[in-house]
Specification:
By secondary structure, the chain is α/β, with parallel strands linked by helices. Helix content is 36%, strand content 18%. The protein folds into 2 domains: 138 residues, Rossmann fold; 103 residues, Nitrogenase molybdenum iron protein domain (Rossmann fold, 3-Layer(aba) Sandwich). It has 9 helices and 12 strands.
């Protein structure tokens, strides 16, 4: 079997991979939802969905640092990575151990492509096609549900000390657009630029993500007092996790109130 990943790299397998390591939390969740939990032998410490998965799988590190000795000991047939989540150094090191499949998610189309490609690799085509169909239906319903929602100019913060926000060419920026929000920092250089609170003065609303920095109510109050603008905490998983999480995201977006 010859397949390509989303960087157009070619991988070949003599049979369907049976021992898989996922170095991306959202893709770990996707593999489980595709019915492949038994094929997962290694995951990261950030793979928290489903909640009990870490009790039965070997944790091989994080997304930016891994324990190569643990990966070797698991004898994987395939290691799944992501262009943004994992470093080039990690990919290069893992390729010396087993084939590495890399995703590159920019929007819903590339998300659905990833699902279908993984369905092909793992002989889970039916489950993959059903999931993509459900995501597409959820998006159609979402578009109906938000008709008439007032347009908002927003800034989406992911880090504190220093403050960092989301700019262009990110999945989060894309999903902000899907919600009908205008990202006021879209023009900033870099995908996750360091910003000052004064950069947020033109925003209608400031959104504080739950990850990677765990913003709390006190952070929202601090920024609100500084700018005199509405500040809302949002669940970062729904704005940044691709894969099957996107299916649940549309329901979250429908009920998201940032007035």
């Amino acid at each position: 079997m010859i397949v390509k990943d989303q960087l157009n790299r070619t991988l070949s397998f003599s049979e369907t991979p049976k021992r898989v390591i996922s170095l991306v939390p959202s893709q770990t969740e996707l593999l489980v939802d595709l019915g492949l939990i038994d094929s997962l032998v290694g995951i990261t410490k950030f793979c928290v969905h489903p909640s009990n998965l870490r009790e039965s799988k070997v944790i091989v590190g994080g997304t930016k640092t891994v324990h190569l000795d643990k990966i070797v000991s698991l004898h994987p047939d395939l290691i799944i990575c992501n262009k943004e989540e994992n470093t080039k150094e990690i990919v290069a090191a893992c390729e010396k151990i087993a084939p590495v499949w890399i995703s590159d998610i920019k929007d819903i189309a590339s998300n659905n492509e990833m699902i279908l490609l993984l369905g092909d690799i793992f002989d889970a085509k039916v489950n993959a096609k059903n999931l993509v169909s459900q995501i597409n239906k959820a998006q159609i319903q979402f578009n109906v549900d938000i008709v008439g929602r007032p347009a908002k100019s927003v800034a989406y913060l992911i880090w504190k000390n220093p403050y960092m926000a989301v700019s262009k060419n990110t999945f989060i920026d894309y999903l902000l657009g899907v919600n009908g929000f205008k990202n006021i920092l879209h023009f900033k250089e870099g995908r996750y630029p360091i910003i000052e609170l004064t950069d947020l003065e033109t925003a209608d609303v400031i959104l504080l993500s739950s990850e990677p920095y765990p913003f709390k109510d006190k952070d929202a109050l601090e920024i609100k007092n500084a700018l005199g603008k509405p500040v809302h905490l949002v669940d970062g998983e729904y704005f940044s996790w691709y894969g099957s999480r996107l299916l649940k995201a549309f329901s979250y977006f429908t009920n998201l109130s940032i007035d």
